[in-house]
Amino acid sequence: KQAPLVIRVDPSPNSQKQSERKERGRESPMGVTGGVTSNTDGGDSESSLLLTTNTPDNSKIPKDSFHLAYIMYFTLGTGYLLPWNAFITAVDYFTYLYPDASVDRVFAMVYMIVGLICLLIIVAYAHKSDSFVRINVGLGLFVVALLVVPVMDVTYIKGRTGIYNGFYVTVAAVALSGIADALVQGSIVGSAGELPERYMQAVVAGTAASGVLVSFLRILTKAVYSQDSHGLRQSANLYFIVSIAVMVICIVFYNVAHRLPVIKYYNDLKSQAVNEEKEEKGVLAGALWRSTLWDIVGRVKWYGFGILIIYVVTLSIFPGYITEDVHSQILKDWYSILLITGYNVFDLVGKSLTALYLLENAKVAIGASFARLLFLPLFFGCLHGPKFFRTEIPVTVLTCLLGLTNGYLTSVLMILAPKTVQLQHAETTGIVIVLFLVVGLAVGSVVSWFWVI
């Protein structure tokens, strides 16, 4: 019985060096297979490697004319984080409206819990749902959730404080955004995992661009609008209007992207791989699907743990520590805004660097992710250490390094993980990796409270 033909996606027409490296095969850290090896068992063993290789003819791969596909995936990455950024950046406005509510904590808890539950469901039933439908539904839900705040402000709240029915509706909109995020983020990352590496890099860089966009909007609104009730209201409405506009662009881009020749080419490769697997194993359902899913999780778990620890470290420091625990007599209330902007800019730089140089050694990348735990005692020193450590320069440098390492290592692991499995399972792998990421966000948010304790 011959092993099934599985087609591996090369990152670009000029990737012969990577092809040769993967054909030699390599072991990922902690026993996870990270390269490409032939299935010498003839496909009979469930423990055989998921990934075999049959590199497509590079001369037949369509070009990404004008980098349209790259731009579209970059925009999609920007889009699916904007709704959360809009809600959390407008927290001053919501705190003014609802002074007796712990707005930021409630928003974070609702968003993460709802998103995590939905992601678990999506992972379990990924084989029964279509990513095209999930993404379009999710983008539509984002628009609805974002419309709630400005529409309610104009028709019901009208700048008045203490109307807590409005708060409950806003929390429901945050929960709706959590559902949409699970549908869109997991599926976008999953679909990018089926394409060459540059498209995953585009998505990841787009998420960083979202933070940069919101940071500059925050600087603009603070500089232009007064910080009274009227100014806060105008600022909040601006965040949501910009986010809605970007979301509409994302809907258009996503529904155009699959028609581009380069995207159609790789979608056809996936369809071929899916059909060959059906002929070999039958329809993935029941015990066969669960076995395949656990095989995927086992194969990428250390990539996932690397991403998880990245975001545990990052969220334990940023933004809570940055906004609440460090102060500047010179910069005053601009200090936290500039630190957040610095983090976001360097996060974007880090996520863009993988377009120039991709660290292909997963063991080093995962080790570096755990090495970021050193940021915790360093930032602690900025609170309780020598006097120089408690000044603006060390805090700013550390914050920028936190963003740079977060961006680069996230991008590396997100790019490498889907390439360890068969093409037809790359989407599920992307969703699994996002699940690890969300767990890291949740744990990091909890750990951040230890700064207060």
From TrEMBL:
Protein location: Membrane
TM regions (residue ranges): 70-94, 106-126, 132-151, 163-184, 199-217, 238-257, 302-322, 334-358, 364-383, 395-417, 429-452
Region (Disordered): 1-56
Ranges of Basic and acidic residues composition bias in the record: 18-27
Bias type Polar residues, positions: 35-56
GO MF annotation: an example: nucleoside transmembrane transporter activity
Keywords, comma-separated and alphabetical: Membrane, Transmembrane, Transmembrane helix, Transport
Superkingdom of this protein's organism: Eukaryota
Residue runs in coiled coils: none
Annotated signal sequence range: none
Protein name: Putative equilibrative nucleotide transporter 1
Source organism of this protein record: Davidia involucrata
